[in-house]
Amino acid sequence: MATAGNSNINAKLVLLGDMGAGKSSLVLRFVKGQFLEFQESTIGAAFFSQTLALSDATVKLEIWDTAGQERYHSLAPMYYRGASAAIIAYDITNTESFERAKKWVDELQKQGNPNMVTALAGNKADLEENRKVAAEEAKAYAEVNGLFFMETSAKTAVNVNDIFYEIARRLPRAQPAQNPGGMILTNTPSEIAQSSNCCS
Amino acid sequence: MQEPDHHDLSDDSDYAASQQQGLGKSTFRSDSGKFGAGGDGGVWEVVYFRENVAIHPTQYSSERISGRLRLIKQGDALFMTWIPYKAGQSGVDPARYGENSSLSEKDQNLYTIRDLPLEDVHSIRRHTPALGWQYIIVVLLSGLAYPPLYFYNSGVREFLSTIKQHAFIARSSDDANVFLVNNFQDPLQKTLSSLELHGVASIANATSHISFGSVSSNQDINRGSSSNSEYSGKPRKRIQDPARDISIQVLEKFSLVTKFARETTTQLFRESQNNGFNNYGKIQKNEDAPSKSSVAPDHKIEANIHNVPVPTDPLKNELSLIWGKPRKLPMGLEEWNIFLDPEGRIMDPVALKKRIFYGGVQNGLRKEVWKFLLGYFSYNSTYAEREYLSSVKKKNYETIKFQWQSISPDQAKMFTKFRERKGLIEKDVVRTDRSMSFYDGDENKNVELLRDVLLTYSFYNFDLGYCQGMSDFLSPILFVIEDESESFWCFAALMQRLGSNFNRDQSGMHAQLFALSKLVEILDCPLHNYLKQADCLNYFFCFRWILIQFKREFEYDQIMLLWEVLWTHYFSEHFHLYICVAILKKYRQKIIGEQMDFDTLLKFINELSCGIDLDETIRDAEALCNCAGENGEACIPPGTPPSLPIETPMMYQQDDEDDFGKSGCI
């Protein structure tokens, strides 16, 4: 969904990442403030929405949480197609999950919306003693690839709201000049991207 | 007109022959007056009879079996009888009165309705199509129905008003064309908001002069059959059936039919699709309509439809009237033992499946029964054979398990695929049903068993490997079966049917989702049209339902019941798809009314979890499955899970968890 007026933004956000990285836990912490130690696996996909009030806009995030197993990879395009934002999650205690995250980044760069706001989330930051992926390494990777990076913990809630708010802040704002009446509603997020190129 | 031997109902065909002379007169009777030697209790009295009432055993109207329909009264009881004419006796004009000769006598006898007590009738649905013959569908209390009875000499109104004189009959408040007979026992009946008791009387008293001349080009096409010239174009004589006032509605025409006559429904379903489509707001084509008087009512109805935001559910009334049978209590040990012969064979597997379909199995007994339902034990095995099989299979299992147990840590370092697979399984088992006491707590033995069985399975079926969702399937099996090896073999048997749910190319899922879309198309055309317009026809919002057979949608005890119902394959191997349709139909009003898009729909569907009434859903699904009949099964491509896969050397694509990006996008 596109913007309406100059202060309301609807944006589709997709969560990608290896299974068990904590995608569902991140979104549930963010949307419902909940955390389950044994969050069941996501079958197919789940959908949530959450509205954020920022100083310059109200942003409604429509969040797609996807199944992580590579087996279901062929379904992913259905969910990231048309997304204006993505969080790619990995588990800091699992190097394979970081490798998988890089592959998601590659895929989105090739297939996704070119103006997509993409965040890299090193989740399970509370498990410092089991850390396998250095924060510096991930940060450097993120910088090279134009992502913003945070280490998060769905369990302790560290950086969870922050990463979603940061995405909301970075989402392109509507350019009033292009929508003189302010009433042109479009349905495809790619059109948002085309019609609003400024990034805050 | 006197009928000399109307008491003798056992030899009706001969009687019919003897009455050929009288056919011409009787068929044009416009009333249903009593005739014959009427009497009090104990004496038969024919209170209604009509010649040339026919059924169409196939979709071709040329193949029809004509016969005589009668209502017979004995004391307070009313009986319905329809006896086909014998070959060569079918009336004065063979060209017009059907070609029974092409059908065997056996066929004809199959359809005979002999002395059906009206007490056994649930409802009668009247169909008065704008084009073609009037027909009725008699639905029994059992939920089954006779094939449509076509009144080639009209007389539906008299038929209903005769019943009204002798039995209690009430028009359904939901559908003016459905007449409920004698039935107030069904709890559902009580929920029907109101019964319009004067309905029949109002028909009988009303007057109307609508010609049958209306020809709809759509309907012509959809009647389809090449041999239906009698349906099209031919001007009809004026029929004084005032019921047409109310009954010219844009309604589907479908039939619940008994298994032996399901083909009959093909044509009806065509009409159903057509009309359902019209119902959703398309204007029926009436360009060819020759007479103004016949067109007007149609337009009136269309106008009404345009004011209704949500199209009516074509099957709603039928569904609520013709529910599946009431659910029973779960089968207990005593009842189970009745199914076994002294050596432990199951004597009548179909009866057993039927029993389980209608009520499931008591918890303690599941351990035994599931092994049959899943196909691990065969129904004709003896106690001794099963014991032997179990011991062999146990060794077998240990051997397969040892394949991965024997992998040393050093070897594992060089065996990425094994490490990955183990990792996947370990990630999932610790989050599978952990809120159940059977699986909760640290270092739970059963969680370890889940892991061992799944890892062993991923070696047993290395090509398929492990897939998210499998732990959902195994969890209740292990909970029920308890034994590790037996659980493994039960799971393996289930995966033989459902393994292709997990194909990398999603072919098994696509086949089922496709079949689901086709089923909705025939069973709820307006919903189908809505989903089409909302670009939701991929049915991915039902992905979770199908992938793990509703495991996430019901509480644990409910899912065990649903699964055993599904595993009976009693009505259909693909009963789970009818469950999907039943749930979707239940919420169709909301889905269409709120104009849900894909996102909203998926969210809505996911959030139905644990809020669905299982018994009601199964009953609805049963009714839908019966409705769809062979047309439903025809929607389902061969080999669609859980059908056993069509034999191919490579059942699954090579499984590589690290070939990220190789698979194509959809």
Automatic annotation (TrEMBL), chain A:
It is a lipid-anchor. Belongs to the small GTPase superfamily. Rab family. Its main location: membrane. Gene3D superfamilies: P-loop containing nucleotide triphosphate hydrolases. InterPro entries: P-loop_NTPase (IPR027417), Small_GTP-bd (IPR005225), Small_GTPase (IPR001806). Keywords: Coiled coil, GTP-binding, Lipoprotein, Membrane, Nucleotide-binding, Prenylation, Protein transport, Transport. SUPFAM superfamilies: P-loop containing nucleoside triphosphate hydrolases. This is Ras-related protein Rab-5C.
Automatic annotation (TrEMBL), chain B:
Signal peptide: none annotated. InterPro entries: Rab-GAP-TBC_dom, Rab-GAP_TBC_sf, SGSM1/2_RBD. One of its GO terms (cellular component) is cytoplasm. Residues 360-570 form the Rab-GAP TBC domain. Keywords: Acetylation, Cytoplasm, GTPase activation, Phosphoprotein. Residues 1-10 have a biased composition (Basic and acidic residues). The keyword Nucleotidyltransferase does not apply. It is found in: Cytoplasm. Interacts with non-phosphorylated form of RAB8A; phosphorylation of RAB8A at 'Thr-72' disrupts this interaction. Interacts with ARMC12. This is TBC1 domain family member 15. It comes from Zostera marina (Eelgrass).
